[in-house]
Amino acid sequence: MKLLASRETQSADSIVRVGEAVFGDGGFVVMAGPCSVESEEQLMLCAEAVAASGAPLLRGGAFKPRTSPYEFQGLGEEGLRLLARAGERYGLGIVTEVMTEADVPLVADYADLLQVGARNMQNFALLKALGRRGKPVLLKRGPAATLKEWLHAAEYILAEGNPDVILCERGIRGFDNYTRNVCDIAAVPAMQELTHLPVILDPSHATGRRSLVPPLARAAAAVGAAGLLVECHPTPEMAWSDGAQSLTLEEFRALMNTLPCRILKW
Ligand code: PEP
Ligand code: MN
Hints:
The protein is α/β, with parallel strands linked by helices. It is built from nine helices and ten strands. Helices cover 33% and strands 15% of the residues. The strands form two sheets. The protein has an eight-stranded parallel beta sheet. A two-stranded antiparallel ribbon has the order 1-2. Helix 1 (40-53) runs parallel beside helix 2. The protein starts with 15 loop residues before the first strand and ends in a 10-residue tail after the last helix. Manganese (II) ion is lined by residues 35, 205, 231, 241-242.
């Protein structure tokens, strides 16, 4: 059976609009912010840097999928309220993760783009609920998912009537633990062969190392990704999650100056 997500069904690239940001028209869109929303001050500093760099979308986790139940789980609704305030103050769209089907109505009230985390890529009840909800979805690739499994996960959302899905490669499990994950840069053009949906790269989770984020971000642009998800933090060494892979705000600004954000076609 032909999938709705496949190139066979639709040969032209899908365009997904998130507020003022447009994915899939040949442009390069950056979403950035802290791994976790920690405090008003931390988030506002990030939002100011993101807006000043010209990126249209602020990311930040309020509901955090953590490996251990004893690690910080996110501020929950208070985090969502802070995101909304930061988005309003700096004119940014909001990207944040929704972990469960039950949380979809709450998170959708605050988010412009609903993130499905890597560990939830095959949470089919969540995918169906997001399909019914109709807001744009950022679907991360599972840490051990094949491209076909990822494509079928997107299909669950499309099949419920929501065409606005953006795919995000964030690295897969490998044998070498020098990097947190193996950045499967080939997955970007490979998925573009299989699907008309926009594909972006998350070089932060893909590498786990701040120093590797800028080169992989530029690699994403070079292979034709529709954009990036990048983690940044005012004081990464103090971050409550993912500090080692978070850029300082200065590093983020410097990275943005090297990216082709305003180039429409290579
Ligand atoms: C995140 O974006 O902070 C996150 C938890 O990502 P992933 O689901 O890719 O691990
Ligand atoms: Mn993170």
